[in-house]
Design a protein that fits this description.
Elements: E1 2-3, H1 14-27, H2 34-55, E2 63-66, H3 69-79, E3 87-91, H4 96-104, E4 111-115, H5 121-131, E5 137-143, H6 155-164, E6 168-172, H7 184-187, E7 191-195, E8 207-211, H8 213-217, H9 220-223, H10 244-260, H11 265-279, E9 284-286, E10 297-302, H12 305-314, E11 317-318, E12 320-322, E13 332-336, H13 343-354
Parallel strand pairs: 1-11, 3-4, 3-5, 5-6, 6-7
Antiparallel strand pairs: 2-8, 7-8, 9-10, 10-13, 12-13
């Protein structure tokens, strides 16, 4: 199998997998004793500090651990006191699970509006600026990196616009964390969530959610919930007891990224090779905008979409096809890779398509 869908799911780092096993073995000596409870709390706090270091979060207690990005998004939406007539701005590039949750709010009289990304970051900022002038825009929910084509949205600029209109900004970092540099404090958004098992290469069933003080102040259901003395309200997004092995595995993966740094040169090299092959095939075109792109993703479109997918499936080449998105976004095919991926796999993929 030639796997070119790492934006969908990545293999767990060996170091993270070892950390899961080591932690669960250690837990057996404590279980739910008094010492075990203290050991558990200490472990979770250490994991918060590790994730906070990677994401540049000033207060580690602002981090909650969740099973995945979709759960984080659902919890955030559920915590807000929505009123009929409220508007949520988003984009046509959001993950289906995010889009479906937004559409589900329509039965409560809440209106999601999906902006189509333009040809440049500045044009997109302009479209957001215009949309924010509508009355009762309560929140913007937007990806940091588009899972459709890897474009990096201008989150810091959108945050400035949102603050001017007293609108919450919630960011989906599923395709960003571990892929590009993320600085939560610099982005100045109200909430940020991510999956641990994509570019972070943590265990399946892990993720993180960062909530700002401003978000909590605007979420009555969270603010009114009692907490233990000294406990930050972000913990209210953590439902029940964690699988502490998975959480430490995620923290280990984040620590590995933080220590080694984001080496994206290999990702960029593969992307350049892929674009070169695309340029040699007139019937295929890369999906890009005049702005920054995450280096591990390249999406292309072709009039022969179905025929191309048949070839790829026959050759056991795994990519991500987009066929059920809004008009203008589909059909398209996304390829994604890791730093250590074999460049020849990309070349061979396009050779098969060319045949």
């Amino acid at each position: 199998m030639t796997y070119l869908n790492y934006a969908g799911s990545c293999p767990i780092l060996p170091e993270a997998e070892q950390e899961v096993e080591r932690t669960l073995t250690e837990y057996k000596d404590y279980l739910y004793s008094e010492k075990g409870i203290q050991w558990y709390r200490t472990k979770v706090q250490q994991c918060r500090e590790t994730v906070a270091a990677l994401l540049h979060v000033s207060h580690p207690s602002a981090i909650a651990f969740v099973p995945n990005a979709s759960t984080a998004h659902y919890l955030l939406l559920s915590s807000m006191d929505w009123k009929p007539g409220d508007i949520i701005l988003s984009s046509t590039h959001e993950n289906p699970s995010i889009r479906n949750e937004l559409l589900a709010l329509k039965h409560r009289g809440i209106e999601p509006q999906f902006l189509t990304p333009t040809s440049s970051p500045q044009e997109f900022l302009t479209s957001v600026h215009h949309a924010l002038h509508a009355p009762r825009v309560r929140a913007i929910i937007l990806s940091h990196v588009s899972h459709v084509d890897g474009r990096i949205f201008p989150i810091a600029g959108i945050s400035v616009l949102a603050k001017e209109r007293d609108t919450l900004l919630i960011v989906d970092g599923a395709q960003a964390v571990g892929h590009i540099a993320v600085n939560f404090d610099h982005l100045n958004c109200d909430a940020y969530f991510f999956s641990g098992y994509k570019w972070c290469r943590g265990p399946l069933g892990t993720g993180g959610l960062v909530v700002s003080k401003h978000f909590l102040e605007n979420s009555p259901s969270v603010r009114s919930t009692s907490t233990l003395t000294g406990q930050y309200p972000a913990s209210r997004f953590e439902i029940g007891t964690h699988n502490i092995g998975l959480i430490t595995g995620l923290a280990k993966a984040c620590e590995n990224i933080n220590q080694e740094g984001l080496n994206t040169q290999g990702l960029k090299t593969i992307r350049e090779v892929a674009k070169q092959h695309l340029g040699e095939m007139q019937e295929m075109q890369a999906r890009e905008w005049d702005g920054p792109h995450a280096p591990g993703i390249l999406t292309f479109e072709s009039q022969h979409h179905n025929a191309i997918m048949e070839v790829l499936q026959k050759e056991n080449i795994v990519v991500k096809p987009f066929t059920d998105y809004p008009k203008g976004e589909t059909p398209a095919i996304r390829m994604s890779w890791l730093n250590e991926a074999d460049t020849n796999n990309v070349r061979n993929t396009f050779d098969k398509i060319r045949q």
